Amino acid sequence: MNLPSSARPVEVVLVEDNPGDALITEEAFEQAKVAINLVVCEDGPTALDHLERATGLDGTTLPDLILLDLNLPGMSGIQVLENIR
In the chain, which residues have pLDDT < 50? Predict the structure, then answer.
């Protein structure tokens, strides 16, 4: 699915501690030929900080999609979900 050039990019947050998995995901989005703003967070606290800033008055937007590794070290993906909720 290709978006018209006037459509806003899809905002995606990837929470992934494995650089190889993050790279594979980035490459898949590049091949999709869809306008995507991808933010990669390496751990739960970083993702929560990003989401908190996105709800602020600084002009950023909430993501359309969050891809979350549930087996994160430290703060698990389940704990991240609990905090988002």
Answer: 1
